[in-house]
Design a protein that fits this description.
mainly alpha
Length: 68
């Protein structure tokens, strides 16, 4: 089990994206995802896609290192 700089950075970046996504929802009217403007919704979904890609990358690294 090794916590590499790469895995640490991925985990940190995933958390930053998660917090940004939560902030975007908080700023949407009535704090609802479906009330976001089209531009904000598109940005939110792009962040979500990137976050999912990063999670997949982190899982691969963890599997390769025997962390999971």
């Amino acid at each position: 089990m090794a916590i590499s700089i790469q895995k640490h950075q991925l985990a940190f970046d995933i958390m930053k994206i998660t917090l940004k996504m939560e902030q975007m929802i908080e700023h949407a009217p009535n704090s609802k995802l479906y009330n976001m403007s089209n531009v904000d919704y598109t940005r939110y979904m792009a962040l979500n896609k990137r976050k999912c890609e990063m999670i997949d990358e982190l899982k691969t690294l963890m599997n390769n290192d025997g962390d999971l």
